[in-house]
């Protein structure tokens, strides 16, 4: 297996650290727009090679694949680049994995009632071409989406005879401090992506169809395990809701994120001021004259890089699925399948903060299962299309066990 990793930011660098301990691949070409960042991540292992790439160019991705005889493209950049990396992999005849899906576009007149272009629609539209070519595009194989979808598959196969709701719930008690020990606003994941998913209309699967609602709707307090405790969660647009119902029979599917009042207020202010926009605006340049910049890119640039906040972060993060319905015995059942990661542990063991590490471990596991032939397929598929047991067994083997809590 010869892997092209596109993106050497927080998640990409953590992926390199995790994969360095495994022997299932021949090489990983670590690529990024910044060659310096790619070289830094590639220094993790002698099997790694650094390269520069423009992720917005499908032909650039394809050329790099051909140059290094790549068999699998691992996309670890912001989902705005999904379709170019996805297209480049197909052009080069490589299989493809990503940790999100192609971007959505809200309904032009009724965004909080009807779906427009949904997450993943552009990729699923060409699923037949991938299948005919005998190529696999495994989409949404991070932690959420990704591990959460594996949990849903496991619950459907082994714990439940009938599912009412697949309710992905994400929460944490993470705190980031400055040099004086004061708590600061520093998102632990890409701010560009966070703005995208939190301010778009959330999607809900119900009554056999997808519907939308207003951002931050239906607040509920969910009690997260292993000391995290109660966190208020709200509806957020996320890929699980678009993936799970394609392969798992359920009456309802939701995604709720524990953002907190402060984070929600910041997002609302950004939206009010137009700072969430990706459309470029003309501004004065420091050298005189003018230049064009995207407000959202500016917001992301002025905040701390998520890859660097680990040493100043404490706490745990939890990803999981709360499944309700009837168990295999026909009795009512309510079960939370989850994965908790402690930042102190990931920093000590891998040198990467827990949120990016928890995201990165799952595509590494998927790549190892594909290399073994344990997971096989063609077309555009989500994690739900594969057997969950070998994935969860390997997650435990990697030293990061998962849990089940009856509610």
What key phrases describe this protein's structure?
seven-stranded parallel β-sheet; nine-stranded mixed β-sheet; single chain; Rossmann fold; alpha/beta; 20 strands; 407 residues; 2 domains; 14 helices; Dihydrodipicolinate Reductase, domain 2; 27% strand
How would you concisely characterize the structure shown here?
With 407 residues, the chain is α/β, with parallel strands linked by helices. It is built from 14 helices and 20 strands. The longest helix has 19 residues.
CATH topology of the largest domain, by name, is Dihydrodipicolinate Reductase, domain 2
Radius of gyration: 20 Å
- Average pLDDT, rounded to a whole number, is 93
Which geometry do the CA atoms define? globular
Characterization of the model:
- The structure is a single chain.
- The protein is an alpha/beta fold and 407 residues long.
- The chain is 33% helix and 27% strand.
- The strands form four sheets. Strands 7, 9, 10, 11, 12, 13, 17, 18 and 20 form a nine-stranded mixed beta sheet that branches. A seven-stranded parallel beta sheet has the order 3-2-1-4-5-6-19, with helices on both faces. The protein has a two-stranded antiparallel sheet with strand order 8-16.
- Helix 1 links the parallel strand 1 and strand 2.
- The radius of gyration is 20 Å and the shape is globular.
